[in-house]
From TrEMBL:
It is an enzyme of class 6 (ligase). Gene3D superfamilies: 3.30.300.30, N-terminal domain of ligase-like. GO terms for molecular function: 3-hydroxypropionyl-CoA synthetase activity; acetate-CoA ligase activity; AMP binding; ATP binding. One of its GO terms (biological process) is acetyl-CoA biosynthetic process from acetate. Keywords: ATP-binding, Ligase, Nucleotide-binding. Belongs to the ATP-dependent AMP-binding enzyme family. Residues 538-616 form the AMP-binding enzyme C-terminal domain. Signal peptide: none annotated. Residues 39-92 form the Acetyl-coenzyme A synthetase N-terminal domain. PROSITE patterns: AMP_BINDING. Residues 94-477 form the AMP-dependent synthetase/ligase domain. This is Acetate--CoA ligase. Its EC number is 6.2.1.1.
Length: 650
């Protein structure tokens, strides 16, 4: 890790995008049309008049009734285009299906087993309408919540769009989360309906999603119906009166469905993400601003055009999938790849083969995957023709310069600029990101998107240059989250109370002498495991829920491939034998409680954990010990001897 930081501090290389690409880019053309000479003039105009910029882009979308006000900013509450009448689905689907993109392919789907399906905008439109009508028939109304628990199959975007079309609020739960995690999220959302599937394949293994759901469904009191997609046609238990197959439900449904005319500020979805406590945060996004933000970044960051074949490898269960597999690309009328499978299955050439097969032009993935493929070696991408690629993207965690260079050379053939996009579930859209016209430094996410002011502050709120500090955002942006679902207090406390009227990201960043941002990771108790946000508290509470465990402390252990791995220190009940077997049992327990992504890589048994006098576990000290760093001052500890305990456990 410290080698990595060292490399970041000394990275001096600069890579310029090809001239032709710059000339042809959406952003360059847009600037030319407005007589804007260069990047600094663009930023200046956007800073002087951010509403001018967003108004221009919002005008590219369809409004049922125009807005009269662009932004109302009463920190920490922003409203964008608030009196406009709008529905994101009209923009993502209806207008394409009724226009010249009618027979354009929206999604090319490929399953892990090699099955393929292609859906045009018109296909998608009709499926969405049928499901929307069916949902209405089940009594789903504007504002009702629907939980969606599906793998990466076309029914997933169809379900999201069908909800949004009728003004219902979707809450997608990643299909890699297991029963307890699903339950917690569905209870918090108060969902009436769950949409799930029988099963799917991962690494050739059958994952039975409906069976998993069945273990908790009776504990979610608000659920009235479970809709089951027969994806693999495996056997499932169907409860009479509650469970219904997707195909049966859609039989005979009308292929037209009126799109609900909504206010721009109406809620589109709730997406749960990890917070510093064990309870996930329900991040709330709206129709209007979110549409404008995701569309604009598709256009200017990914430079999307009608002849592109675009592929974002993120699962739709995460924000990256919501914004850049579903809404952004569809609003832009793009053709996207949807892949339901492991990236290195059946061999490490899978993704590169798919890029070649479909002629992918824009490819967006996570550093953890880049590092994994680095390990497999150049041979795999070299076996495939990747010359269709024009632009690359990276998201989810800092990309170390070595991985950046490997990606740039071996995947992008030194001709594709890499958009290292920094953003969050809360921000909804790219915040700190290059544009295709930007000179790039490997490992830096470049600068804030036009109109946005970001900064790095010390504890007293002073701007820092050249040193690490709190990464903050000082101006509102259209796709920002509006609140945390049913938890206004936490919204204010988590994000807006450290610095007045300034959004605290929870990340540590550094701004260099050229104004480039370098993101260094989280500053709170959130782990980033292979680009996935996991709260230490959530894993701890899963461990403690095991009958043999008294207490647990979870910290991140730096890992070359995954960024971080999960390390857990566990205190067992008296008289329980700390065996190797028990470690396996606890690992499996966490897997079952949260999901495979939260499984600890290391478990150590201890008799005591270092705590402050007020009883707070000192994860900082545990982590220092774990990675062999100086633990610093332990005088504030109630039990300094516990630190030596850790050593023994390792
Ligand atoms: C991290 C994912 C460095 C960061 C879109 C952030 C990044 C968290 C980058 C959000 C990047 C995301 N460089 N770090 N380009 N992108 N992160 O909510 O720590 O799942 O706070 O959203 O991922 O994770 P989330």
């Amino acid at each position: 890790m410290s080698d990595h930081l060292d490399a970041l501090l000394h990275e001096k290389r600069i890579f310029y995008p090809p001239e032709e690409l710059v000339k042809e880019s959406n952003i360059r053309k847009w600037m030319d049309e407005r007589n804007i000479k260069g990047y600094s003039e663009l930023i200046k105009r956007c800073e002087e008049d951010p509403e001018w910029f967003w108004d221009e882009l919002a005008q590219e979308l369809d409004w049922f009734e125009p807005y009269t006000k662009i932004l109302e900013w009463n920190p920490p509450y922003a409203k964008w285009f608030a009196d406009g009448k709008f529905n994101i689905v009209h923009n993502a689907l209806d207008r394409h299906a009724k226009g010249w993109r009618k027979n354009k392919i929206a999604y090319i789907w490929e399953g892990e087993d090699g099955r393929r399906r292609k859906l045009t905008y018109f296909d998608l439109y009709r499926e969405v309408n049928r499901l929307a009508n069916a949902l209405k028939g089940l009594g789903v109304r504007k504002g009702d919540r629907v939980s969606i628990y599906l793998p990466m199959i076309p029914e997933l975007p169809i379900a999201m769009l069908a909800c949004a079309k009728i003004g219902a609020i979707h809450s997608v739960v990643f299909s890699g989360f297991w029963a307890k995690a699903f339950k917690e999220r569905a209870i918090d959302a108060g969902s009436k309906i769950v949409i799930t599937a029988d099963a799917f394949h991962r690494r050739g293994k059958l994952i039975k999603l409906k069976d998993t759901l069945d273990t908790v469904i009776d504990d979610i009191p608000t659920i009235e119906k479970v809709i089951v997609v027969e994806h693999l046609k495996t056997e499932v238990d169907m409860k009479e009166g509650r469970d219904v197959f997707w195909d049966d439900l859609l039989k005979g449904q009308e292929k037209e469905c009126e799109t609900e005319i909504l206010g721009a500020e109406d809620t589109l979805f709730i997406l749960y993400t990890s917070g510093t406590t064990g309870k996930p945060k329900g991040v709330v996004h709206t129709h209007g601003g979110y549409a404008v933000g995701t569309y604009t970044t598709m256009k200017f960051v990914f430079d999307i055009r009608d002849d592109d074949i675009y592929w974002c490898t993120a699962d739709i269960g995460w924000i990256t999938g919501h914004s850049y597999v579903v809404y952004g690309p569809l609003i832009a009328g793009a053709t996207s790849i949807l892949y339901d499978g492991a990236p290195d299955y059946p061999d490490p050439g899978r993704l590169w083969k798919m890029i070649e097969d479909y002629g992918v032009t824009i490819f967006y993935t996570a550093p953890t995957l880049v590092r994994m493929f680095m390990k497999y070696g150049e041979k795999w991408p070299q076996d495939h023709d990747l010359s269709s690629l024009r632009l690359l993207g990276s998201v989810g965690e800092p990309i170390n310069p070595e991985a950046w260079m490997w990606y740039y050379e071996n995947i992008g053939g030194r001709r594709c600029p890499i958009m290292d996009t920094w953003w969050q579930t809360e921000t909804g859209m790219h915040i700190i990101t290059p544009l295709p016209i930007s000179p790039l430094k490997p490992g830096s996410a470049y600068k804030p998107f036009p109109t946005i002011k970001a900064d790095v502050l010390d504890d007293d709120g002073n701007s820092l240059r050249g040193e690490g500090g709190h990464l903050v955002i000082k101006t509102p942006w259209p796709a920002m989250f509006r609140t945390l679902y049913k938890d206004e207090k936490r919204y204010i406390e988590s994000y807006w109370s450290k610095f007045p009227n300034i959004y605290l990201t929870g990340d540590v960043g550094r701004i260099d002498e050229d104004g480039y941002f370098w993101i260094q990771g989280r500053e709170d108790d959130i782990l980033n495991v292979a680009g996935h946000r996991i709260s230490t508290a959530e894993v701890e509470s899963a461990l403690v829920s095991h009958p043999l465990v008294v207490e647990a402390a979870v910290v991140g252990k730096p890992d070359i491939l995954k960024g971080e791995e999960i390390a857990a220190f566990v205190i067992l009940k008296e008289d329980v034998k700390p065996t190797q077997h028990l470690k396996g049992v606890l690992r499996e327990h966490v897997r079952k409680e949260i999901g495979p992504i939260a499984t600890p890589s290391y478990i150590g048994f201890v008799d005591d954990l270092p705590k402050t006098r007020s009883g707070k576990i000192m994860r900082r000290i545990i982590k220092a010990k774990l990675i062999g760093e100086d633990v610093g001052d332990t005088s504030t500890l109630a039990n300094p001897e516990a630190v030596d305990e850790l050593e023994k456990a390792l």
